[in-house]
Structures are given as C-alpha cells and as structure tokens.
Design a protein that fits this description.
heterodimer, A: MetI-like fold, two-stranded antiparallel sheet, 2 strands, 1% strand, B: D-Maltodextrin-Binding Protein, domain 2, D-Maltodextrin-Binding Protein, domain 2, 2 domains, 11% strand, globular
C-alpha cells in the first residue's frame, strides 16, 4: 500500500512541479493584489500603508455614486463590452465557416494570415493609424465615402458613432485570432459525418446547420462563457488611445475613469472602490453564464 | 488622394529626420564641450566627504539631447555634483515627460520613494498628508544662499505655494508668472498680403479669421486654411483659448475678485459670451472641425503647413511651434499683439502663480540640505549677471549645438521671476542706441541674433525678434505686468474638495465647451454652471475664500 502511494507520488511529482510556476504567478499577480482592495474602504495615504490609513467605511462608494458621470460611464462600459462580445462571436464564426468552404488551401492560408496580422499590433500603434485613416478631412475612409457621395463621417469625434467605431475596430483587430480557434475546432469534426449527410441528400446549408455548427458549439459556448467575465471590460487600451473629451459622454468607460482618478488625480480610494465593484460584477456574470451554459448545452467550464 | 500621399511623404520625412537626429545625438565624435567639472571655477558650498548618495527620478522630453557619450546618468551636471559637492546623483527611473506624473504616482503608491524629486501641487499635498516628505523650513533658513533666497522670494506667490500649515515642505521651482499670460499671435505676412491693419478689437480678430479662411492668404489656390488655431487641449500654451476668453473679460479656470470675494472664472456670465462667439465662428467654418480630436502635435503640423494664421498663446510660442511655419515658408512671420477687447473696457491677460511644481525630500533622507546646495550651485553661478561664456557653454548649452540644452539634464534649476522683464528693458535700450555694451552674456547673445535679422537678413532670427525684440512679445508682457493683467488670486495648495473634485469638474467643463462650440445650445453652459456649484464647486468656493481671508494682503 505504502509503496503504491510512493509510486503514485513519484509519477505525479513532475506534473505538480510543472503546475507550480503558473500557480505562483496567479498568487503573486492575481490573488496577492486582492489584499489591496481594502483601500476601497480607506482614506488611503501611501505613507501610512495598507493598514495604517484611516478606515472610512463606504464613503468612497457613496462618493463614486455621487459623481456626475458615473451612470453614463457604467452604461457606456456595458454597451460597448456587450456589442464587442456579440460581434466577437458572430464575425469569427462566420469567417471560419466561409474559409472552411474554400477549396484552395493557399488562398485560405493567405487570408488567414492577413486577417490575423492586426492582432499582433498594440493599440498604441493601431490608434495612431486609425486616427489618420478615419479623419473626416484627409482620411482614406472618408475620401472613399466621398466618392460614393456620402458626407464625411467623424468616426472618432461624433459621440453617436464613437461606440460603434470602437466595436468595429476591435473586431477588425481580433477576429483573426477567433477565426483560427474556430477553424481548428472545425478540423476536429469527423469527415464521415459529412459523407453520411451527402448520401442522405443533405445540401451545403443543411450540412452547415446540422453538422458543422453543432460540431463547434462547445467551442462557441466555451469562448462565450469566458468572455462574459469581460462584460465590464470595454477595452482600456483601445479606448484610452482613441477617445477625447468630445466623446466622453458615450466613450468614457470604467477603466479610463479609474485611470484618470487613480493615476492622474491620486484618488486611490475611490478608484479602488470602482475597480473592486467591477470585479464583483464580473464574477457574478461569469458564474451566471457558466450555469446558463450548463443548462443550455450541458457543458460547464468549472 | 494627393493630400494623403503628401501626408505620408511628410511623415516619412519626419521619421527620417528624427532618425538622423537620433544618430547624430549619439555620435561618437569627440566633443570639445565635454569637459570635466574640475576645469571650471564654480562657486560651490562645502563638499561632502565622504560623498553622499542621492536617489532621484527624472523626466526627459524630446528636446533633451546629448553630445558624445554623455547620457542622463553621466553628464556635466552629474559630474559636477559629484566633484564639487560630493553628491552622487542616481536615478531610480527616467521617463518621457508625458509619463512622469503617472510613473511617479505608481512609485509613490509602492511606498518606495526616491530621496529627492519634483512633484506637482496635487501630489505635494498628498505626500504632506501622508507624512512622507521632510520639513525643509530649517534647511532653507540655514543653507539657502543669498541669491537663492532672493530668487525664491522675488515673487510673493512662490513661497505660499510650498508652505503648508506654516512649514515649508518643498522648494518652489520658480519662473516668471507673467510668462504664462496669453497673447494674440498673427501671421503678419498674411495680414499684410490682405492689406489689413492689426486688430483693435475682438470683432477685428473675428473678421480677420473670416478673411483668412476665405481669401486664401497662403496663396496656394486651395481652400485649406482655418481662422483660429485650436486643439483638444483647450487651455494649452499654444492654440489655447484663454486669450480669446480674456478678450471677452472671461477668465477660465482662475479665481478672480468680485464684490469682495473670490469667484471662479469659468462660471461667470462673460464666459457665455465668449462661447457664443466661438460657436458662431465654428458655424461659419472658421474653426477646424476636427479640433476636438487634434492634440498639440497635430496642431503644430497645421502651423507648419501654413494652414492657420491666428493663434492665442504665450510669449515663447515662436520657439515652438510657430518656428515651424518659417522653417517651411521662409517669409512667414508671426507677430504678437496684446489681447484686444470686445468692448471699450481694456482686455486683461490672465496668469497664475508660476510655481506649478516643487522639489521635495523624502522623510528620513539623512541629507535634506544636499538639495539646497545643488540649488545654490545653480543660482550662484548661472543666475548672475557676470556668468562667463565658457561656463554657460559648458553647463547651459552653446550656440554651436543649439539643440543641446544642457540645463535640462538637471531638475535643480529655477528661473528668476523678475529677470525676463528687466532684461528686456535693458535689451530694448541697447537696440535703440545700437550699442550692446553693458549687457550680460545672455542679453548680448539675444542682441546679436536680433541684429543679424536686421543687418544680415537672416530670416531664421525672426524668432528672437518676435519674442525679445523691441516690439516683441516680451514688450507686451511688460504692459500686462503694468496694468493689462489678471492674476489668479488663489495660489495656495489645492484645498480638500479641490483635490477630490476639481478634475471631474474640469472634465465636465471641457466637454461642455467643446460641445457648445460644435453647435449644442448655449443653455448647456447654464446647466454646467448649476452642476458645477452642486457637484463640489460650492464647497471649493467656500474653501478658497477661507484661504483668501488668511492670505490676502
């Protein structure tokens, strides 16, 4: 019995060792900083430290809910994040399905590479490019619209359009990555199923509907569940680099507000309070969608 | 499409130019100016022996360049501090100026402070409340040299800014307050071309803007000019709106005296008038429709490309960005004018106490007086009339390498508040009688440059003519200092509610201004005023007036 136990340990020890670095990283970078959440309940002064600062209960929370723009900021965040989530599923799935039907593999690979490229550029660089090409007076996009007889659109300066600009550019940057994930999921579908379907007289559409989509539905659900945790993450890097006071009313999101409060104005307490609430809401969402996924598709992430 | 191509070409050119500049900056050519500190006879306080260590942090901007194998950690200033004072200055980190305050914020949060560093007044207050910085009152009394005290006390607003509850908690980085006062800059060559006279009123300015838009003043046959230079940084040092508002007797973001108490300029009725005028200009197409997304860099591109001919900004604008016009179009000439008025009352240029940042010392640093010695070294040697040329070339920068500005290698430099105006008076007298005798080095250099413009027709020298020349910008500052200025009456540390809410209120204001200019009804301004009071403005006004009761004189 004892030798068996030891045997088991020897076999599994390398596995545990391999697990150690990621666990350490999680502890240091994800769980450790959570202690800092106590700042949300303090009048935090850096010199006094985490436990020396004065405790002020929920004052920071009442302060943030008294802020003039808090409602629009939350609304903007949810709206932009939700749109990104939806578009982030539909576009890559559609493109993956289309590419899957392409016969020429060289063409398919070229397209894959091209749409994957922007994924590797940081928002700092992309925003510089976007500001130039979306300019109403000189940007190439508006010049093209001009040829079609459409009046110039102020993509980054019009508060009605700005949220959609962020969604579309975000999809443009990221759909290449999603497409590759779905394409790899597609390859795992048993070709026999298609052959059987063809023999049964199924057309292209019916094959897609009854074989391909159910075949990748687990992947879609998995990615959707994981992305619901981001319901309050509307994309700090992107918006921070693209927005301006002109579009604060529809483009200012929780993260940009926290950044301005905490880093620019040293309001550490209120900034932490906002960040903490955001995490709590995200936790609720991810738990709920995990439940929903289990109900709907019999699949749970955790 | 041609325009896009040109834009690409221009940006390509800029990249190449930057690349060349970067290469030449780090060239390994031996540099005659790279002399050791011992070669100079500097006035210095007693040297530490053994040497002491000092950890600091530093921001550098694009204008900070080095000769030979100098860098920010090893240059004439660091070597001098080590050799003459026995202070080994090291940097925890060095970042671009645009990221300094964010990086510092993170550093403060981590609790590991540098020994000596530069902060803004908001962080200054926080560090004081956190009891993280050293009381420098006694250090100042015991160690500040006579000249240092003179410089720091010339402007009555300098010391109050760094004094909290009666104790001096930092050292003010002084400058001339008046240097921040807005002026009206106009492309003289355009004005002449259209046969116009200098504007006597704000109405004239607006008419000029309209004609600059319609009558193709740059003569390139394209409808590509705007009336008024503006960017999304509404209160920037160039392309800012303060000057325009001042023309309407409105004073954005400063505290003015009215009926015996202090009131906030941004919520006064005059502000509405100025906004209405800007809205009209925007409607008529005299303001760049994209100003709301343009930053300072983009605006300077417009100036470089001769797309705008009227700008409200401060006296040094010809050094940047107005020099860019002349660099591209040799005949371009920007002339400064006093802010004209909308009615028969004289317009006043607004300005604030010039101390925006201060040097602080970490609590517990064993040698708080070291920083005083470094500042003395600066004031005693470089703010004196008899500083010799060799010293200036070595420590400040020399004309052979005009883009290498060496005093920027150190944070421990400050300017004499009164110097700019007195120097200009001396210079004007010398120019009038064509005789540079009696000028100090700095002034005689300016004299030579201005003379080169008139005698040899060196057009690049217009920069100096437009600033320090007889009718240059500084002569207008003289008028402003006499009776055309409006000083921000509040110059204390930020009050409690101010540190908490002012940023949000500023954001609200910015949003409102941009929206109204772009066509939203003026009632947005009235709504803003109400919200401003209810969302903290009322408390701030009370706190500011409490401060005023104690500090008015």
């Amino acid at each position: 019995m004892k030798t068996k136990q030891r045997e088991k340990w020897r076999r599994e020890l390398p596995l545990y060792l391999m697990l150690l670095p990621p666990v350490l990283i999680m502890v240091v970078y994800a769980y450790g900083p959570m202690v800092g959440n106590v700042i949300a309940f303090q009048k935090f002064l850096p010199g006094k430290g985490l436990f020396g600062s004065e405790w002020i209960g929920l004052t920071n929370f009442t302060y943030i809910f008294g802020m003039p723009n808090i409602v629009s900021v939350i609304r903007n965040t949810v709206f932009i994040a939700f749109m990104k989530m939806i578009a982030g599923i539909i576009v890559p799935v559609t493109v993956a399905l289309l590419l899957n039907e392409v016969v020429h593999s060289s063409f398919k690979r070229t397209v894959q590479t091209i749409i994957y490229l922007p994924y590797f550029l940081s928002w700092v660089i992309l925003s510089g490019i976007l500001i130039t090409i979306l300019s109403p007076s000189e940007g190439i996009v508006n010049q093209f619209l001009g040829y079609l007889g459409i009046r110039p659109v102020f993509f980054l300066g019009d508060e009605k359009i700005f949220p959609f600009t962020t969604v579309i550019t975000d999809v443009w940057k990221n759909f290449g990555f999603g497409t590759i994930v779905y394409l790899s999921a597609l390859t795992s579908i048993d070709p026999n199923l298609y052959e059987a379907a063809v023999i049964d007289g199924a057309g292209r559409w019916q094959q897609t509907w009854h074989i391909t989509l159910p075949g990748i539905s687990t992947t879609i659900i998995l990615l959707t569940v994981l992305s619901t945790g981001n319901i309050l993450n509307a994309g700090f890097e992107q918006i921070f680099n693209l927005y301006s006071p002109m579009v604060y009313s529809t483009g200012d999101i929780i993260d940009t507000l926290v950044y301005r409060m905490g880093i620019d104005n040293y309001q550490y307490g209120p900034a932490t309070a906002v960040g903490m609430m955001k995490s709590l809401v995200a936790l609720l969402f991810i738990a709920a969608s995990n439940k929903a996924a289990e109900k709907a598709a019999g699949y749970r992430v955790f | 499409m041609r325009k896009t191509k040109r834009a690409i070409l221009i940006s390509l050119f800029l990249v190449i130019a930057m690349f060349i500049a970067a290469c030449s900056g780090s060239s390994t050519e031996p540099d005659q100016n790279d002399t050791a500190a011992e070669d100079f006879d500097l006035k210095a306080d007693e040297k530490y022996s053994p040497p002491v260590e000092m950890m600091s942090v530093k921001s550098v901007d694009a204008t900070v360049k080095f000769l030979g194998d100098n860098d920010i950690h090893n240059n004439i200033w660091t070597r001098t501090y080590a050799d003459k004072l026995g202070i080994n200055l090291k940097y925890l980190w060095v970042v671009d100026a645009s990221q300094y305050s964010q990086k510092l914020s993170a550093t403060v949060m981590s609790g590991e402070l540098p020994d000596v560093f530069v902060v803004n007044s908001l962080l200054f207050k926080l560090l004081y409340d956190s009891e993280m910085i050293e009381d420098l009152t006694d250090v100042y009394e015991a160690y500040a040299s006579e000249k240092t005290k003179d410089v720091m006390e010339q402007d009555a607003t300098a010391l109050p800014v760094v004094t909290l509850e009666g104790r001096m908690m930092g050292l003010p980085l002084t400058d001339a307050s008046i240097a921040g006062a807005p002026l009206l800059w106009i492309r003289q060559d355009w004005m002449n071309k259209l046969g116009m006279a200098p504007p006597q009123s704000m109405q004239d300015v607006m008419e000029m803007a309209a004609r600059f838009v319609k009558e193709d003043p740059d003569g390139n046959g394209l409808d590509d000019t705007f009336g008024l230079a503006m960017s999304k940084d509404l209160w920037s040092a160039y392309g800012g709106l303060q000057g325009f508002f001042n023309g309407f007797h409105a004073y954005p973001r400063i505290w003015i005296e009215r009926d015996g108490s202090l009131v906030y300029g941004s919520v006064q009725p005059e502000y509405r008038e100025a906004l209405a005028a800007l809205q009209e200009m925007y409607k008529r197409g005299e303001i760049d429709p994209e100003f709301g997304v343009k930053d300072a860099v983009k605006l300077s591109e417009d100036i470089a490309n001769s797309r705008v001919g009227i700008e409200f900004g401060v006296w040094w604008n010809p050094y940047h960005p107005l020099n860019l016009s002349q660099a591209n179009y040799p005949d371009a000439y920007w002339q400064a004018f006093p802010i004209p008025s909308i009615d028969d009352k004289t317009a006043k240029s607004q300005y604030s106490a010039a101390v925006y940042s201060m040097i602080v010392v970490r609590k517990g640093y064993p040698h708080p007086e070291a920083v005083m010695k470094m500042i003395n070294l600066w004031t005693e040697n470089f703010l004196q009339d008899d500083t010799d040329q060799k010293l200036r070339d070595a420590y400040l920068g020399d004309l052979d390498n005009p883009d290498v500005i060496k005093y920027k290698y150190t944070d421990f430099h400050l300017w004499e508040p009164n110097n700019m105006l007195t120097a200009h008076e001396k210079l004007s007298r010398a120019l009038a009688r064509r005789d540079p005798s009696g000028l100090n080095i700095d002034e005689s250099q300016r004299y030579q440059i201005i003379a080169a413009y008139f005698d040899q027709g060196i057009k690049e020298a217009w920069v100096e003519v437009a600033t320090n020349g007889e009718n240059g910008a500084v002569s207008i500052l003289n008028e402003i200092a006499r009776d055309r200025g409006m000083l921000n009456r509040f110059y204390g540390a930020p009050t409690q509610t101010m540190s908490e809410k002012m940023a949000a209120l500023h954001t609200m204001e910015e949003e409102m201004v941009i929206k109204v200019i772009m066509g939203e009804p003026l009632s947005e301004f009235d709504a803003f005023v109400n919200e401003w009071y209810s969302l903290g403005g009322e408390d701030i006004t009370r706190e500011v007036n409490d401060w005023w009761k104690e500090n008015r004189n």
